[in-house]
Design a protein that fits this description.
This protein is an alpha/beta fold. Strands 14-15-16-13-12-17-18 form a seven-stranded mixed beta sheet, with helices on both faces. Strands 22, 23, 24, 25, 26 and 27 form a six-stranded antiparallel beta sheet that branches. Strands 9-8-7-10-11 form a five-stranded parallel beta sheet, with helices on both faces. Helix 2 runs antiparallel to helix 4. The protein is globular, with a radius of gyration of 30 Å.
């Protein structure tokens, strides 16, 4: 008997005491493993996540969590050969496995990078700026994100046993949430292998990752207001989850990625001689055959101009005829097996339903020639292409989760958009066109119905990741039939897991709570210039108020001559006087900023290593010859870098004139050494 998969629960590996359900090799039909959760204590798993995993993760800053994700990605990258060997047994080719395994590891790397670049080295993330709530500025508001104190339950589909787990785990972990992963049973032996290696590594804090190998049992019964469930799978299962008391009565957050009848549209401008025609053909065939069409983003509907239907069908058929089906470990094979014979039966059933409104123009659902494998012992299926009959509804209602696509025809751009919308909401659409007008019209027509739209032409094809590839930096999800959920999307995917709260108080209180200096709160203008302080010595609110400097006409003339910026408002008295905003010669904005820098810098070598940027620069009041300016510079935010001997300091800069009017506001960004060196001290 094959081994029984184990669950990782409450700090130890759990093995059920029954024989379990057999899981079969998708290629040979042989038993790979068995799966069961009989006797698994789901309540203990939830308690362990809340009491052990959650506090351990929340103690870490965003940057510390990001560094652990990077370490984990590097660790798993060294074990890919082991995972690839198991992946073949799921029916995946080497190319398919790359999408799943390397794609999942790449998602960890992406979130590790974005976490350090776009999030503070803190446990709190601010959302937007301060909102003034009173006349004199003593009462203000600020939105912020904090980590919830619950657990993220992640229920994944069978088609991506590695990527499906890691793309949910990475943003949840970065958000400070422990995860309980429940993969689809059919391919869970690969997920279990990856989780086992993660647990053995000790990289993630105990309790931050647990695994259910088998049925979810009564797991959802133990969830409450601070918990979430992210589900990828069928619309029917999603409906059951939506009606669960945990969601309806206890406020558990539910994110759904469900069935999706994605489409690709060939633009009216394209002819068979254009490179876009070949790009369309390659794209449809790739989405039919990669993962044997078992992708939630695969092209189920190919929407083409009516006059090109025959040419498209012929080109697709010619290319599909070259697709070698068989043992995915064989280098000559381009398409492997479906995940199970049951899944093959489901796809055949869907094809039968589609045939009520469409005709098969390529492939035989009941027969396929295979290389290096027994077609009947394994879950093999021929790629099947259909052409819809006029007015057919089935292609817009039935999703064949396999190597199947249906060609539909249109006459006008408006008709193409309407056909796409009949899918009732999809994860992804693509448009192949080289006409910018068609690109705008179709994209804006598709956008309300799709989570992502790829516009493909000869200019971006060389670097395009293709129709069906969700990317860590872009939102993955879609409206309507697709479930209405969102995953990934860079930091959006992290904030999705967090709680946004509006806080109100005095500027000093907001500064104390957020860790970022708020306009109107106390400043510490001491004898030591803040540029002489190391990162360890600097404090939020440290600052300098400079002496004033008079801006002369000679300064303005010199700056214009030196930089070549001879815009009339700085050089032509008559034209400047006629300008309704200025009424005369004014100083260049960048001259004001340059003079301001001269007022607040400390010129000697010290802990300030570099100025690497200016954010949010606004010029508010013109400066004329004879005006004087002074600067208030304040430490606004301090972000140590865990991997360097320096950190980032954000300074609030306000330039005022002799009348106290604000001339300019901006943030100055500097790199500051963590400790003083003897030379800098």
């Amino acid at each position: 008997m094959s081994p029984l998969l184990e669950s990782y629960a409450a700090g130890h590996w759990f093995r059920a005491d029954d024989t379990g359900k057999p899981l079969l090799d998708a290629v040979t039909g042989e038993e790979v493993a068995r799966v069961s959760t009989t006797g698994l204590d789901y309540a203990a798993m939830v308690r362990h996540a809340r009491d052990v995993g959650g506090p351990a993760v929340r103690r870490l800053t965003f940057h510390e969590r990001a560094l652990l994700l990077k370490e984990l990605a590097l660790h798993l990258g060294g074990l890919k050969d082991e995972f690839y060997a198991l992946s073949f047994r799921t029916g995946a080719t080497k190319r398919d496995s790359f999408v799943d395994i390397d794609g999942g590891i790449g998602t960890l790397f992406s979130y590790a990078s974005k976490g350090r670049r776009e999030l503070p080295n803190d446990t709190v993330m601010l959302d937007g700026g301060v909102e003034p709530l009173s006349r004199n500025g003593t009462f203000v508001g600020q939105h912020l994100y904090t980590s919830r104190t619950g657990v993220a339950v992640q229920i994944n589909a069978f088609n991506f046993p590695v990527w499906g787990m890691l793309e949910k785990l990475a943003p949840a972990f970065l958000a400070g949430l422990p995860s309980i992963v429940k993969p689809a049973s059919q391919t869970s032996y690969l997920t279990e292998a990856v989780v086992r290696r993660i647990i053995e590594s000790g990289i993630l804090p105990e309790g931050s990752l647990q695994l259910v190998s088998g049925s979810a049992g009564d797991l959802l019964d133990h969830l409450g207001e601070q918990d979430s469930v992210d589900f990828t799978g069928s619309a029917s299962t999603a409906d059951l989850l939506r009606r669960h008391p945990a969601v309806l009565e206890r406020g558990v957050r539910l994110g759904v990625e469900a069935d999706s009848l994605n489409c690709s549209i060939l633009g009216l401008d394209v002819t068979p001689e254009d490179p876009e025609f070949d790009l369309f053909i390659k794209g449809v065939v790739a989405e039919m055959t990669v993962k044997a069409g078992q992708k939630c983003t695969a092209i189920r509907r190919a929407i083409v101009p009516e006059h090109l239907a025959d040419a498209v069908i012929q080109a697709l058929s010619d290319r599909l005829a070259k697709t070698v089906v068989g043992d995915p470990a064989n280098e000559a094979v381009r398409m492997g097996a479906l995940a199970s014979r049951e899944q093959r039966d489901e796809v055949r059933k869907a094809i039968d339903e589609l045939r009520r409104g469409a005709d098969v123009v390529f492939g035989d659902p009941d027969r396929v020639d295979t290389v290096g494998a027994d077609a009947e012992a394994g879950a093999f299926l021929s790629p099947v292409l259909l052409k819809a009959r006029e007015g057919a509804s089935e292609p817009h209602d039935v999703e064949p989760f396999g190597p199947v696509s249906t060609v539909l025809t249109y006459r006008t751009t408006e008709e193409a958009i309407a056909l796409a919308a009949r899918g009732k909401g999809s994860l992804a659409a693509s448009l192949v066109t080289h006409d910018p007008r068609i690109a705008r019209d179709v994209t804006l027509g598709l956008a309300p119905w799709h989570g992502r739209v790829l516009v493909l032409d000869r200019d971006d094809a060389g670097e395009s990741t293709g129709h069906g590839s969700p990317l860590p930096v872009l939102v993955h999800g879609g409206p309507g039939r697709a479930g209405g959920g969102e995953e990934l999307g860079g930091i959006r995917g992290v904030l999705h897991h967090m709680q946004r709260t509006a806080i109100q108080g005095s500027p000093d209180m907001i500064t104390a709570i957020t860790g970022r200096w708020t306009t109107g709160s106390r400043r510490d203008v001491g004898e030591v210039h803040p540029f002489r302080k190391s990162l360890a010595e600097l404090r939020i609110g440290d600052g300098i108020s400079s002496a004033p400097r008079t801006v002369t006409l000679a300064d303005i003339d010199h700056f214009a001559d030196f930089t070549g910026d001879t815009f009339y408002a700085h050089t032509d008295p008559e034209a400047a006087a006629a300008n309704p905003l200025f009424g005369g010669i004014v100083a260049h904005g960048y001259l004001v900023v340059s003079l301001a820098a001269g007022l607040f810098v400390e010129p000697n070598p010290g802990p300030v290593l570099a100025n690497f940027g200016v954010d949010h620069l606004r010029f508010l009041t013109p400066v004329k010859a004879g005006d004087s300016i002074a600067v208030d510079l304040t430490v606004k935010q301090i972000t140590p870098r865990n991997s360097a001997d320096y950190g980032e300091v954000r300074w609030d800069a306000v330039v005022r004139n002799q009348d106290g009017e604000t001339v300019a506001t901006y943030d100055v960004l500097t790199l500051v050494a963590k400790e003083l060196t003897p030379a800098a001290g």
